[in-house]
Design goal:
The complex is a heterodimer of chains A (191) and B (107).
Chain A (H helix, E strand, L loop, with lengths): L4 E6 L2 E6 H17 L6 H19 L9 H11 L10 H9 L15 H9 L3 H14 L3 H12 L14 H16 L6
Antiparallel strand pairs in A: 1-2
Helix pairs in contact in A: 1-3, 2-3, 5-6
Chain B lengths: L3 H22 L4 H8 L8 H13 L3 E6 L7 E6 L1 H23 L3
Antiparallel strand pairs in B: 1-2
Helix pairs in contact in B: 1-4
Classes of the chains: A mainly alpha (191), B mainly alpha (107).
Amino acid sequence: MQRISVTARLNRSTLQFEEAAYVRLESYLAEAARTLDGNPDKQEILGDLEQAVVDQCVRRLRPEQGPVTMAELEPALEEIGSVQVPGAASASEQSVRTAARPLQQVSEGAVVSGVCQGLARYFGLNVTALRVFAVLLLFVSGGGMILVYLALMLLMPYAPLVSGGRPLRWLPAKCRALMEFLRAKFSLATN
Amino acid sequence: MTDESKLAPIRKGLLEFLVLKIVGAESMYVPDILRRLAGTEFNTQEGTLYPLLSKLRREDLVHYEWKESDVGPPRKYYRLTDSGRAQLTALDEYWNLINRTIAEIGH
């Protein structure tokens, strides 16, 4: 039975692939291209990886075999590995970091109680931009913003203080003490 | 058994140092570098090494030249630039300093 094979131009070489293997290769390269998005050397690195695929597959081909099949491509891709950008956190590290960053108020360096700092940290936003936005909302909402802030202040737990960190300003310290008092009084869940 | 999640970032941070050391000893192409690291704690893959080398090249620490090969297309041989050599010396000294600190502290 004659199977469909595809000729792939990879870097400076051409290589014949069975259709399934070709589809797999395309998806590997597309994933690599996505990971390298924004990298100024994206095309060059992709070329290097294509060459690695060619070398690894050719090394695995039996003499006179014909097109590359999954049997050669899978171990080849396994050996090359997925593209890791230096300096970027891998997916597993990122999930650890997110898990280690619950939605909490951050008292150190806070203006009022640390709600903005907490939100900015949780969503990865610029805290100054968020504060400006909050002040704008304060005017637009005609005071409704104050209620939202108070509610968040009451509900968002406080991040533990960094030992040896900056001393709290007067207002954040008062807010924190008041919230701790209220939570104890009404036995709200805290941590 | 030490928690692997604590060791992985250490290795990751040191990989760049090791790559500089390897291409500092002699100019090499990627499969040679991989073989050099294989079987060590720093075993790595093309998918990691090519982006790292491109970053190092952007930082002007390494550069490569094409060399003809008997068996395939030309290969990129990487070696240190002058600033790469200076960086490697600085890293080496820093590493020795850290080692001394670790050995001395807590005694």
